[in-house]
Give the backbone structure.
Amino acid sequence: MIRVEHLVKKFGARTVISDVAFDVPAGQSLALVGPSGGGKSTLLRCMLGLESFDGGRITIAGATLAAQSERANRVALPQIRAAAGLVFQQWHLFAHMTALENICEAPVHVRRLPIDEATKQARTLLEKVGMSHRADALPRRLSGGEQQRVAIARALAMEPRVLFMDEPTSALDPERVGELVTLLRGLAREGLTLVCITHDIDFAAALCDRVIVLAGGELVEDGAPAEVLAAPKHAATRKFLGRD
Amino acid sequence: MRHPLPALAILCALLVVACYGELCAGESALDRVRRTGVLRWGGDVQGGEPYVYEDPATPGKLIGFEVEIMDAVARELGVSAEFVQSDWSNLVPALERGTFDVAVNGLEVTAARADVVRFTRPYYVFSEQLVVRRDDASIRALTDLRGKRVGTLASSLAWDLLQPTGATVVPYEGVEEPYQDLVNGRTDAVLLDDVIAVRYGLVKPTLRLAADVGDGYYAAAVRRADASLGDAIDGALAELGRTGELRRILARFRLDNARQARLAQWTAADTRTMTGAHQTATFTLGHLRLFLEGAGVTLLVSVLAMALAVTLGLFLALARRSRHRPLSLLASLYVELFRGTPVLLQLYLIYFGLGNVSPALRLGPLSAAVLGLGLNYAAYESEIYRAGMDAVPVGQLEAAAALGMSVPLTLRRILVPQALRIALPGVTNDFIALLKDSSLVSVITVVELTKRMQITAVDVRSYLIPGLLCAGLYLSMSFPLSRLSRRLEARLARDGDAT
């Protein structure tokens, strides 16, 4: 589903991702963990074309973005964005629209779904994320957890094959994390590929079948959660896990 | 007040000045002129040739037929003349305030002026000349003007003469513009005195003199209280007329003609006829109707100009955000250009400037007013929108991109709706400002509320009632607007809080 090859990203003279490569098969749940500034968010932004990169290739659902090939990327990017959904750390709901309108926006205007149909789908999704009772609320009247669930529903409304999430647990109370894990597990069971950036080792262990550790812009660890967390090979991982 | 001392000092100073004024009041203006040996007379150098103007050969030296006449008058009085520069339109108020002793600058003797100042006998007899296009044979007299557009200076004798003709009178503030508009076909005729008509109108090859429609007089004006000074100047002018010096001065400036023969035989009875026998106009329902019409023009120009400004401003703001460099540069240039130059100049260029370039660009006064104000305010609106757009979090735009929304779709659905809400109070505020700025369009002959007030104030000899009515009408237009904007803001805030 996802293939990252020799990815290099620089900000000026500073290299923030150096030669990172990995594959994610369809249906897998992957956690991207690592210390702050390790390059996780930048990697995610590169994968969705929100950031250009300086070397390598990224292929998602058959469409390929490559460094220094803007013209080809312009064709590939819409395909990637059609196949991938993204839930931002700060959710970034459209502030002037209700929860329901946020979810209907892209299906109606990008996929050209009739409004009735889009609304019906949106109500189904709101029920799925447990937000039916807040359908007509504006984002500013929603709590962080509520906004997150609307943002998940908004991404799912475009029927993505892979869902990216940036720090999904950072704004949640501990008891809400459990609900999120349940929700995402259900989605994974339906065949959705999941890529979560997270600091939260417990969350990663509870949800994902694979963990990749990024530190200093390099991929330093890759394996099942149990083995990475139990026997970290790299010094940076041990430090990150607080095992030193 | 924390420091009463300075205020007390100012009060004392004022009292002293007032008492000094009282003491001096015993001395007549003529006595003071004789005592100081100086006759101070006011005029405006901008009026140009042949009245009072700078000698092209000797910069700083004033020449003109009025300069020579006043030098001769002062000589007759045994004093010397001293010129005081004053804006022409403020000549009479400045005289009343005492800035100078006598106003002499092509002041036509009109009923309105004769009510507030004491005119001397005339020093020049002019003829009101009706000028038309050479190819237009339909106008031969004032009676042919019904339904025509006729240009002149507001509050002049010609203005008074045109009122009963049924013509649409177009008021100008300069002497070149009315003839230019006549050449360009914006008006059908121009009525102004022969000094102006000969120098600015009849020099144009496509214009011709249709008729002399009546005589008028240039006379010196003194304060009504200064009768003895008026009498003394009358005496001096009579002497200059008797000796023929007056006509010799006029001849030097190519102003002498058969009409001036009357100056030598002028009597005190003639002066009474010239200045007397007219009823004082008062504010009537007819004036009120004209005021409401003026307010209608103000509202029309403002609404249309604002509609243009908010639309064009939005495109400018979007263009400035564009990643297409030339486009954003062009938009920035536009904003800097229109914000950085006076709107008055822009109106002039659009109305008079473009009109001379090509007949296709010859806009009517109303269209030029809407275009000029609209283009200018678009620059300001675009800045308000830009601030509004900057206030929309970038994350929402990235979220839209991640959902596969194109850039134009994101602008239309996400950025602009939110930016407009943020910008709304600023835009409403600008609309109120525009409502008042619209009075500037009177320079391109649009008679809106403020211009109507100025014309009426001269008619009825008072600024008080017309001024208050004018202010009331502006308020009654702007107040509902500011209420509306409050309510919109409140509603948006409430929408924001809806659960």
